[in-house]
Amino acid sequence: MARKMARDPMVVTKEAVLDTPDNAATPRPNRLLPERTRSELLYTPTSSDKASTSIGDGRDRDVFSDTSSMSKRSGRSSPTKREAAMRSANELRLQRISLDELAALLSVERATISLVEDLSAIRQKIGILPGELKTLFESQKKIADPLNDAMFASSSNTSEKDLEYQHRRLLRICKSTVDCNNPARPVHEAEWNDKVHSSILELALNESDSDASESLVFRNVTDARIAIPFRDRSALLRDNMVDYGIFLAPPAASSLEDQIFSFINSSRSFTQLNALESFEVDRPLAIAIETKRSRGGDANAPSQLANFARAHYRLCRYLFPASKQNIGSSGGSGTEPQSSGPVKPTGSALMLPLIEVHGPSWRINFAVLDVDRDLVSSDLAMGSTDQMSDCYVLLQSLRRLAKWADSECVAWWTGRLQGIGQG
């Protein structure tokens, strides 16, 4: 019998290479999924395990808590599945419509149509730049951001000193956008929010000469949650949140402030005016904003915003049950058969602007409660933060939207809360 030759331990055969796992040669930590046995990976928690995996606020913790980054990207949170679930929901079913169809709704006020028209006009960049700073703009001109005389306004009601301060702020926002948008050094969404999105919102809302700066506030609501009564029953749609909310914050002694004070004092069990859990409970939501990085997660924003609008409408139907026909666009309570012809509602439709931010680009669409449907319009560009002229477009668009909210949203909530007091 032939003797087997002793294998040289220093010789690596082809079979040895194929049989050796990759991480044996170069050990690397797996940050997404630590090593586990097959039985652990295939294990499905039972109902008896829920008690041992609950956390303080009553939510169920993922058994594999350190794989949360993977579970967030699983099929359960697929935007396609969420969209399909909202389109087939039993209540507040989602229906997407065009801006022309939105304008044709009987209950959409002329002020809202004017808002859409103005936002479209601002995009043309006619008269959006302060003429007082024309020399400064020309000295800072870039090949990717051309200028022409039509872009400059003839005059402004703002002092040149304030215009120069605003210009420096916008230059900083543009520079931060370039830094955050560098594909070689990508940053997290939180840095976009901190350096870019919060800065432009602050400049548009808090540092404006308009009355809206006194009656609107924006808040980062990333860590907030939808209150339990207004969550969807489907686990797929239960906890969709957004990044920012712009809320009505009426000044003291205003009509809306008086109505809010009366509502809270007269209510024995329910004292909140937005759908969030224990967050700015005395301030109605006016605008919702969802932000995403340029690369990754883009498809999630439309479904998140549409579903968040559904939670907002649950709150409003709860607050105004006796006049539900006054907050929908078609009239009627939604349980009675509608007539064949169009019905003029007794009140204006409840409109919620939804803003999608993808890296530097901002777009807006509008959600409308139509009896028991969540109608969401196609979107419209608002501007961006990667070029100076586009940054001025965005600034003007946000201020025009704030002016609309200060007028139309305040009037809507004042009328409805006054109706509760009279009821």
UniProtKB/TrEMBL annotation:
- List the InterPro entries hit by this protein, alphabetically: PDDEXK_12
Q: Where is this region: Disordered?
A: 1-87
Put simply, this protein is called Uu.00g024080.m01.CDS01
Q: Where is the composition biased (Polar residues)?
A: 44-55
Give any Pfam family that matches: PDDEXK_12
Q: Which residues form the PD-(D/E)XK nuclease-like domain?
A: 144-409
Q: Which domain of life is it from?
A: Eukaryota
- Organism of this sequence: Anthostomella pinea
Report biased composition (Low complexity) as residue ranges.
65-78
